[in-house]
Amino acid sequence: MSIHAIVYFQRRGLPSSAAWNQALAQLRWNVRFAPGLDVNSASGFQRAIFYGRRTGAEMYFGDVSAADVARVGPAAAKTDRQVQFSFSYELEMAFVLAASFALCALAAGIYVDPQAGKIVSQHVLRGEVNSMIARAPRLAGPEW
User: Fold this and answer.
1) pTM above the 0.70 mark?
2) Can you give the residue ranges of every domain in the chain?
């Protein structure tokens, strides 16, 4: 079973995967995308490194629609782009949470947990990432 997460963000805030990796580095997290991520058109599994472990997640970029705004609320109206993540394992989730937090900080984004049907605050999101980092060597999940 896959778990999903969505980040709604401002397109101008995410010029490249290098900028996203730089945002992760500035947080002093040992998390990065593998080379080759195209933030304008990526679709499918994207490779990453989380504290020395090879992981990744499915990522699908797209524009924000009126239906997204109706579902998420007024906060989504301030954004024009979204990335949907799909993952199955703890290791993948750790990467997704870290990447999502960095993207929210970089591009005025909001993180949505569609399973819970709610926006998750950056404070809570950062706490989840820090918890995952503390358990990084023991996180379950295959490595590519």
Assistant:
1) yes
2) 3-138
